[in-house]
Every structure is written in structure tokens, then in C-alpha cells.
Predict the 3D structure of the following.
Amino acid sequence: MIYHKVLVVGGGLAGMRAAIAVSEHNTNVALLTKIYPVRSHSGAAQGGINGALGNNPKGRNDSCERHGFDTIKGSDFLADQKAAMLLTAEAPKRIRELEHWGCPFDRTEEGKIAQRPFGGAGFPRTCYAADKTGHVILHVLYEQLVKYEVKTYNEWMVTKLVVEDGVCRGVIALDLITGKLHPIMAESVIFGTGGGGRSYVATTNARTTTGLGMALPYLEGVPLKDMEFVQFHPTTLVGNNILMTEGCRGEGGYLKNKLGERFMQKYAPDFMELAPRDIVSRCITTEILEGRGFDDSYVHLDLTHLGAHKIMTRLPGIRDICMNFKGIDPITQPIPIQPGMHYMMGGIDCDIDCATNVGGFYAAGECACVSVHGANRLGGNSLLDTVVFGAIAGEKAVKYIESKKDSRKGEKAINDAMEQQEKKFRSLMDNDGPEKMPEITRQMGEVMLRNVGVYRKKDELSFALEKIKELIQRYKKIKLLNKNIKGNHELMWALELEGNLLIDEAIVAGALAREESRGSHSRTDFKTRDDEKWLKHTIATYNPDGVKLSYKEVDTSIYVPVERKY
């Protein structure tokens, strides 16, 4: 049996930062990742990371407190306010830490880290490395991982979280190359497994970004929180939904309808294109629905007035993507864009220390819900979330281990889980049912996009809930065509599909129950925010007969919720 003091699951920014934090305390740690760390979806983050550094001339009066208020307001007052203020207070420290580790941020003429405007921010506070910020931070953290000689299990996939009497004992993991299952005992486990974007057919998320990392603890009694809040990014490339960073608008890009109008003037006259993402997504969708979009499906993101030099130095990745995937040059042509699923504000229910209701089990990054993003995340806060709470999760896991009087307990629980997983795998591989996994995947993605999208209403949500329940039952009858256990990606996709279906049920059930509009959750049949009834977190608990919903209080101890205007 493999043993580590701390096991980190997920090789993206949150996972690597957690592993580094554990290593800084000279504690035995290993990192297990489905793909090689520098291939993580964290590398797709383009625009930047937020912090009140005050380096932009227009941001001299910025502060961590103002960043915190913008985050809370952007969340439509569903963020837990002490958690949000911790996030923003830690921001300058964590950004300078990345700088000292060698992160190649763009610079001002004075040599300071450059900062650009982003949506919903009162000051330009988004630090960036052209439009490849996530990519460069990913490589910087990987260098630290190598420095600390962290043991990594590359192309391994966790299939079960082992919990005994409310305490985490370890995991069961699949070596994707050999097809062999392995029991791994750990005193503490940290999940940094990312979001579940592949629940939707139109998403900016990579193929590897599925809901399994949320579903595994959910199955073991760890609740999910605020799953109905799914962010659509306003600007994704038509046809494949590749992200067109908010940095395009931060650098001065315009949104125009087919009449040539900068239509944000009538929706958010003060912030224009730099209103928060939920608002801009709804405005674009409204323009399309009311007939002012191109081909009734998209609008234009126009960068042509920025000039060649600015586009080629500040947005080179965007230009490459447009030329390679659409055959257009944004220096001379507008970019056809539409909203696409981008990020999940909800996730594994955690407290401000990244701790869950299971002893020794922690979560950080997009798979977790601390909650700092509430009903809508501000652009630039996700990269910040990963490095701030990744570090906190690692530090708290070490303290948890140090507080324990015994170790290496739970061997029987892990052996029992191993036996259960082997039985499950045999059943899955031998299943000769009539259902085809790709067809279930397609139907899931389409029903989520069509019925649980930018705008929502009761009959569509009710249909989606019944459809997801139907697909969960049909999933039990899938037949895998590849019977070779070695390098079997079909098996991996089948396990991930189960995870997506389980979290989708929580998303739809929460959205159907929440009879208000707040942040990214916009009900056409309940058009206003209702603080009297719905200023509360949705808690989803797994039940084989259907998700069980309950609610808990939102921390509003610092700012009184007010009407959200931009």
C-alpha cells in the first residue's frame, strides 16, 4: 500500500500551490494528477490575477478593502465576506511571491508589475503576462514543485475518496497507463481538481475539466455548495467557444451588435464593456434574442481600433487563436463572439480554512466553494483564488496532521474500498447494456446548455432535472467498446461522465429551487433578487434517490447588501 502524510489530488495551480505549502513545512507530500501538471486547464486562464498593488496610475488609491468590496458586490452579496476579505488581503503577498519566483509579468515604465482594468473593478488591479497569465504561473509553480522534489503520480486518476467514521483515510487511484488500481493511505487529502465545465456542450473548459473531483467527496457525504451558480463568459469564439480573454475589453475592446452599436451603453453606462461577466453575458444574449445579433447567434468583439502594436504585444495569444481557429486577424477584423459556459462558483463546501465536514479532507480552487465568489466571480479572481487558498489548504493540512496523536489508521477501510472499486471496474468493463456513452454525454451537454444557461425558467429547469435523472439511470447500462485495461481513455471518460451527471443534478435542483435572480442565476420568471428569502447558501447532499437540498447563512458581517448597479 502506498503511504504519504499528505496527498494532493490535481496538478493545476491550486494543487501545486498546496503541495508547495506542505513541502515548505518539510512534510511528506505527493501530488497525483490525471495529466502532466503543466498541461493543466489552469494554463488556459489568459487575462490576469487581481491584487491591490496600486501600480497603475489610475489605481493609486486602490486598497485590499476596496478589492474586497468589489468582490462582494460582484458576487451579488452571496460571498462570505470574511472569506472574500481574506482573499483580497492575501493578494499582494501572493502576487509578489510569484514575481520573486520568476513569473514574467508585464511591466510599467518604472519596472513595476503592470495592471489592467477588468470587469466589475473600481480600479485597474489585474496583473498580467500579455494574455498568457495562467500559462506562465503554471510553469512557475511547477518549477517550485521540482525544487522541492515533490513526488508526482502523473496520469493517475482518483476513483474513490476513502472516508471512515467522518475521517479521511486516503484514496483509491487508477494508473491510466497500466490500468491498475492502487490504494493510497494519507493522513490528509487535498483536492484541487478544478471545475466541471464539460457538463455543458459549449464551454471554454478543456476536455479534462469534469465534475468527478466534486462528485467523489459528494458521494462520501461531503456537501456541495451553491452549485446553481454557473458563470458564462461573455466572449467566447463562435464555433468552438475558445476563450477570448476579458483582457480584450480591459485593453479597450468594444462590443458591437449588427447595427454597429456599442450596446453596453444602454445596459451599464458607467462600466460599459467592463461590467461584471454575468451582466455582460445577459446583455449579449438579450441583443441576440431581440434580433440585433449576427445570424441570430453572435455579436462582435472589435479590437481593430487598438492598433497592431497593442494587439501584438498585449493580446498575442488572442490573435493567434483567431487566425488559427477562425481565419481572421483581429488587427483588421472584428471577432465573432457569444457567451459560453466558463466557471463554477459552487463546489465542495469548505470553510475559510479550506476544511470540510470530513476530518483531514481539504479542497481549494474551482472544485471548492469557500465561498469567495458567491453568485458571480470577478475576472482575475480565479487565479488569485488558486494561489491564496491552495497555500492555505496546504498549511492547514500540515497543522491537522501535527494535531493528531496517531497515524497510519484506516488500513481496513482502504482495503475494503479497494475491493469495492475492483468490483465496480469489473462490472463496468463487463457491462453489455444498450446505452452508448458518447450519446449520453451529448444529451447531457445539450440539455444543460439549452435549459440551464444564461437565462432560466421553471419549466425548462424541471425538464432538465428529469432529463438528468433519466441519464443517470441510462448511464448504468452503458457498454464500453474498449476492453483493454491499459491506456483506456474510454474507461476514464465513463468515470468522468458519472461525476458530471451527479453534479449536474445538484446544479439543476438548486437552480429550480432558487426562485430569484442573483448573479449568474437569472430566472425570467423571478426577475429580481430576493434577500428576504434567498440570501442564503444552497447545500446539496447526495442521496441515491435524488439530491437533498438545505440552506445555510451567508456571512454579511462587513457590508450590508445593497442594490447592485454598474
Summary: The CA atoms of residues 97 and 103 lie 9 Å apart.
